Amino acid sequence: MTTSSVHRGVTVERLSAGRFRARNERDGLITFGTGDAAEFTPTELLLAAIGGCTSIDVDIVTSRRAEPESFQVLVEAEKVRDDSGNRLTDVAVTFRIAFPATAQGDEARAVLPDIVQKSHDRLCTVGRTVETGTSIATRIE
Fold it and tell me: b/e per residue, 62-84, with b = 16+ CB within 10 A?
């Protein structure tokens, strides 16, 4: 089995009480917070990352066949607080995608179940990491 690795990283900085900004290595920015304002919370960003990752996989394959008329992916979970600590359970990803009533739309609909499964089982880095689990090392410098 071949293994490859590509480094990924973001830097998070505090803007004010409960507000933060993440910067990626390409200078992209996103703000987030504690949920007191309209910004996403870190938990919502995780759900968006799961949905975004699998959306990209599905869109790349299906849009080669037909441009979707609508494309939504709903990602939901239960936030649990118990003796084990805070975490999400019962993560569910629902695809709501419509293609035109054409031969190309039929082709896109035909490949949809397969690419959704491949994204879940192998392609989506975010979903795979959540499902398989990985350790997180913390350091103080």
Answer: beebbebeebebebebeeeeeee
- Give SS3 for 135: coil
- CATH code assigned to 41-132: 3.30.300.20
Query: Residues 7-50: pLDDT tens digits?
Result: 999 999 999 999 999 999 999 999 999 999 899 999 999 999 99
In this structure, the strands spanning 85-98 and 70-82 are antiparallel
- Separation in Å, CA 4 to CA 32, 104, 128: 31, 35, 16
Maximum Cα–Cα distance for the chain, whole Å? 58
Cβ(96)–Cβ(73) under 8 Å? yes
